[in-house]
Specification:
This protein is an alpha+beta fold and 161 residues long. The chain has five helices and five strands. β3 and β4 form a beta hairpin. The radius of gyration is 15 Å and the shape is globular.
């Protein structure tokens, strides 16, 4: 959940809990929008994706279900808080999961794809397919169009003043 090795994230989350009147022990996920070490090779691009959430252009994200299994990480749940970070791990904002839909990649809707705020449906499909194919190659598996995708919708609940 919270990256206990990062004092900056600990302090940020403490401030979030105070400002939103949340119990101090409220759990929170902490990460950027890509698999650690496997995000866009350009750090500026990675940070731009986090900025899309900060400015509320990005309201969804999609992962392979296999990524959670591969990383031995439980799936997030509706209502979970997520401290979004830059590629370097610095806090950007906090979102709360509002919906989770697990479906085959080739059944993800255009509406959901557009909620990611990263371009049109074709760009979304091509970008995610390439990203997922790269993951599968590293894992020694094959990406298929019916690979299960975890589509998470979220709302911005906190950004620094």
């Amino acid at each position: 959940m919270i990256d206990t090795s990062n004092p900056q994230n600990q302090a940020f989350w403490k401030q979030v809990c105070q400002d939103l009147d949340l119990p101090a022990d409220t759990p929170c996920w902490t990460s950027g929008f890509a698999e650690p070490g496997q995000g866009p090779h350009d750090a500026t691009k990675y940070d731009c994706i986090a900025a899309l959430a900060f400015y509320e252009y990005k309201k969804g994200t999609c992962h392979q279900k296999a990524q959670f299994e591969h990383d031995n990480v439980p799936l997030r749940k509706v209502g979970d808080y997520w401290l979004v970070t830059t590629g370097a791990g610095a806090p950007v904002c906090v979102v709360r999961i509002t919906n989770i839909d697990i479906k085959p990649f080739n059944e993800v809707s255009e509406t959901f794809a557009l909620s990611e705020g990263e371009g049109d449906f074709t760009a979304w499909t091509d970008g995610h397919r390439g990203y997922f194919e790269g993951q599968c190659k590293r894992w020694g598996t094959e990406f298929r169009p019916d690979t299960l995708a975890v589509c998470e919708s979220f709302e911005l609940v906190y950004r620094p003043r």
